[in-house]
Design a protein that fits this description.
Layout: H1 3-22, H2 24-35, H3 43-73, H4 78-85, H5 90-103, H6 111-120, H7 125-137, H8 140-150, H9 152-175, H10 203-238, H11 241-248, H12 255-263, H13 270-282, H14 287-299, H15 302-308, H16 314-338
Helix pairs in contact: 1-10, 2-3, 3-8, 3-10, 5-7, 5-9, 7-9, 8-9, 8-13, 9-16, 10-13, 12-14, 13-14, 14-16
């Protein structure tokens, strides 16, 4: 694509996006009520209405915001992130690492090279963990979906509580001095200095990063979005509200630890789990319990623990799970008492 048109295209597409997004509810109702002529109030009708409305809504939000997040990410690289964390004091390092975890590219498969680079550079172990906790937990997909399904207040709550968990957990791990539970070979690996020319890119190149981010991320998660919304639609149409209220409501004292224990071994990402959490809340599950469940699925996923086993000894992984899981439960009980 010509660089000039690459800059202008987002400005041309934005009004079209807005008009389509603004009329999704009308289009979904027309499809279900007029085209298919289904009876209002029936379980299948309302489940289908939920699915037809939420799928394009979520995918459109993802495409728009990931485009801008991709532009922001063009200013960062793993090497530059590492340099930003070097030489910082412990608590300041925890805060900065958690904030960087939100905007820098990260997934479970990149845990090992990032961890190696951080440790070899002398970055404290606790600061590294603040980054590792925040990056998968407060990713753009989770925030976008929460914003689209619940509004900005719940999305902001999730960001702030996720940051609090990442900062506090990393600080506590650092205070415990657990470096001896890192695999011995980690400290022997020399890490090269990667090129960090991200700040020299032109606007056209950064916009290309935005397009590439949409193509890569939406291409990876669209199926999870559809499957998650499909499950949510079924729950929306068929699960009685009293059932979820009794299992995950405020009155059930065991709901928060149970949701965390259930969430840890599950394998899902934000695209698959947020639509399900949306329906859980709609059906009577409390906000705190639902957030605890979501955080445990995203932040303490079993596949990530298996990957980290290559660089961490089992006692450190179990300590990591216990500290982060405890923080998630505190958040769950706190928000159940407030909301």
């Amino acid at each position: 694509m010509n660089k000039k048109y690459r800059v202008l295209l987002p400005l041309l597409l934005l009004p079209i996006w807005y008009l389509a997004y603004h009329n999704l509810d009308t289009a979904a109702s027309w499809f279900v009520d007029v085209l298919l002529r289904l009876d209002r109030g029936e379980h299948f009708t309302e489940a289908l209405r939920f699915f037809v409305f939420e799928v394009p809504k979520v995918l459109m939000l993802l495409a728009l915001i990931i485009f801008f997040v991709g532009i922001i990410r063009s200013f960062f690289s793993p090497e530059r992130t590492r340099k930003l964390l070097e030489g910082k004091s412990t608590f300041v390092g925890n805060v900065l690492a958690a904030l960087l975890g939100i905007v820098t590219p990260f997934c479970s498969c990149s845990a090992i090279p990032l961890f190696l680079g951080f440790v070899e550079s002398g970055i404290p172990l606790g600061v590294t963990f603040s980054f590792l906790i925040a990056a998968p937990m407060i990713n753009e997909v989770a925030v976008i979906l929460l914003f689209g399904l619940f509004g900005w207040k719940v999305a902001l709550i999730y960001i702030l509580t996720g940051l609090a968990i990442a900062i506090a957990s990393g600080w506590l791990i650092g205070r415990l001095k657990l470096e001896h539970w890192v695999q011995d070979w980690v400290y022997k690996v020399p890490v090269g200095s990667a090129s960090g020319n991200v700040e020299k890119l032109h606007l056209q190149d950064r916009i290309r990063f935005g397009y590439d981010a949409v193509k890569e991320i939406v291409g990876k998660v669209w199926l999870y979005v559809i499957l998650g919304i499909a499950v949510g639609a079924g729950a929306h149409g068929y699960i009685p509200q009293d059932f979820m209220a009794s299992l995950m409501g405020k009155s059930a004292w065991y709901s928060v630890p149970l949701s965390v224990l259930i969430g840890i071994p599950l394998y899902s990402n934000a695209a698959g789990i947020v639509p399900i959490v949306s329906v859980l809340i709609e059906k009577g599950a409390s906000l705190g319990t639902s957030l605890a469940f979501m955080m445990s699925v995203i932040g303490l996923s079993l596949p990530e623990m298996i990957i980290l086993k290559k660089v961490l000894k089992l006692p450190l992984i179990l300590t990591f799970i216990a500290i982060v899981g405890g923080g998630i439960m505190i958040v769950g009980y706190l928000f159940n008492s407030i909301f």
